[in-house]
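Supplementary Note 3. Input sequence used for the single-chain structure prediction.
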Amino acid sequence: MITAHPSLLRDLIERCETLSRRMAVHPSADTARQFEDATYTLCIITGTRQLDMALFVARHQMAAAVRQHQAFHR
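The predicted structure, written as discrete structure tokens, is reproduced below.
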């Protein structure tokens, strides 16, 4: 299975979380569009259709990459 680089996943997770917080405090059309774009990208990269599942899969993939990296360097 092909997965995104962990740094890309981390960046997208952080972006989605930041924009979600921004929407809760200062909602705007621009922030909503950015949030939708980030959510869409994360869903596409993880092969999911909903943000909560995309976040779950991305975090799982990042953890798996760390484990694989650690095993490789032993």
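The helical segments are 6-25, 29-46, 51-72. The chain has a mean pLDDT of 92.
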